[in-house]
Amino acid sequence: MDLNGSTPDDGADLAERAAWLRAELSRHNRLYHELDAPEIPDAEFDLMVNELRRIEAAHPELAVADSPGASIGGAVSATFAPVTHAVPMMSLDNAMDIEELRAWGERVERALEGESITFVCEPKIDGLAMSLRYVDGELVSAATRGDGRVGEDVTANVRTIADIPEQLSDAPRIFEVRGEVYMPKSVFEALNEAAESAGERALVNPRNAAAGSLRQKDPAMTARRRLAFWAYQTGEVVGGPTFTSHRSSLDRVAGHGFPVNPRIVTCATIDDVIEVCQEAIAHRHDLDYDIDGVVIKIDDLDQRSRMGATSRAPRWAIAFKFPPEERTTTLLDIQVSVGRTGRATPYAVLEPVFVGGSTVAMATLHNRDQVRVKDVRPGDTVIVRKAGDVIPEVVGPVLSERPAGSTPWEFPQHCACPLASEFVRPEGEADTRCVEPACPFQRDQRIIYWATRGAMDIEGLGERTVMQLTDAGLVADVADIYRLEIAEVEALEGFARMSAEKLVAAIDDARSRPAWRVLTGFGIRHLGPAASQSLARAFGSVRAVLEATDEQRAAVDGVGEVIASSIGQWFAQPTNRDLVDRLERAGVAFDVMDGPAIDSSLPATLDGRAVVITGTVPGLTRDEAAAAVVARGGTAPGSVSKKTFALVVGDGAGASKLTKAEQLGVPIVAADRFSEFLESGEVPNNASGAGV
Length: 692
Ligand code: IVH
What we know:
By secondary structure, the protein is an alpha+beta fold. Helix content is 35%, strand content 19%. α12 crosses α13 and α16 crosses α17. It binds 2-(butylsulfanyl)adenosine.
């Protein structure tokens, strides 16, 4: 991982950074969930998620919706036929700690007052939910969860899983068995060893490997991946016994030959449940499959039906998620990365350590003061913490193990680039900067930034390729990329004719991006996509924005003096003026406009109203759902407060937002009524208020 590409560059412009992180996270989410083709390791993704969360937590005004890093399920991908589930595949609410688990226990007890309750605790398998449908004892379809209503037909691939019977004897006429397809850790390790000796790319983690295996076009490939299955639920059952308890349904499922996890236990009280959860935390790594929590379900099916469900999750179950894990490792070194505007960020180089589900070899240390406060020193044994989807963090040193004679780490005085330019820390600022505009580290980061999704969005022009192009002396700034010839790219290592042609075509295609993207792509300090959009709209072209006075720019809504003068300073530099001329000569459009954020053709049904969205709205990404609110005049902050007009709740919603909404009496809108809500601006009638 190269931290130059993924650490904040300009601490002052958080709005810009947050927008960039959102765009990148959505892209990586899609690559991971829908295309099974992650470009970055989980740890790097996690790093970005946490950075965004920190920004949004500290500046709620910048939050547009939930952090895109929070588990967004994938939409249905186009490759496999859609299957509509006879009974929707619901998601689960999460309890992030014991307190939230107790709160759920209390809700259950209130709802079933005076009744005796049996809880079933099951390992929460970190794989892929699967619904297996048997008709007259024959396996007829295997479908992924998809959005809960419609999944993907992966029957041919699932037939290769040895744990899953093709035929059942004495089965109900229709019998749906649901559970988790996973790749055993031992299989994952063996496949990776084989890949390594064959010089092939390694699989990222077992969950990802399982997802990729299920989406193979050739079932023979899936068969080689040796996937496995744990059954944990029944779906539609017709013409069979009426079960009265979950346990009895699982016994029946096991009787038909499905693997049912032997660690499933029943508990009579929430205290016993908590004990089971603590046991599971202690033993999670002793198993041959990844688990990321414990699912707790009410056993009695009549009690379940009386408790019911919200549109996204049953009230009779909860997923207790494991807390962040901590491990110790050696801090090998502290290095400094330099970003596009010269911000110098220290980061820890660690003896790789497996923590929180992935191997961590680096972690950001944020800035000079953070290193001083933590007083971590190369050679120290340090505590590293990571939750499943959160960035790895160096908590601090283990002082008892500090080598004798160690001295505090000193921030280097010079950039490690060939120019060895001086690092400067301006008075009163947290950040240290490399102030040499010719610094090759900054140059590379500027080009990488130009090509990112949030700016010019040039496919295939990622960090690695940019480094290759600058190393080969083919590109020294963003204007140079438009002169690249196919033969030049083809000569680079790892490029064939086709990929060289593709890259040059992608660059060509990006010549006509909207003006705000060009402005954003310059990477001017403080100027992010939102202000770029306002400016482009107000002035009509890139050149008009650059040539306006600071006062004219500052008069634009959402811009202000800091941004206005930062643009002025940038454009006053002869190298930047020259760059702008060369881009224009290279045919980069400067006056393309795209749609406004607030759509004046739509009625402003949510004018001035804060709508918080949690979980997934069917058919929309989080950003799209937030944009739909904004388009109608509303705002879409990331957290619930007294001022929240409504909380929109979809699959994978966070329990804490719901609890907060309950406490504050904020009305809840089910995600499947989102469009109705947008249209009317009213909370739909039968959507409940507090106490869903
Ligand atoms: S029950 C209505 N049981 O967790 C109940 N889910 O976060 C639906 N999962 O989509 C699920 N282990 O993929 C259930 N023992 C277990 C589970 C389990 C893993 C997954 C499943 C589900 C997700 C919800």
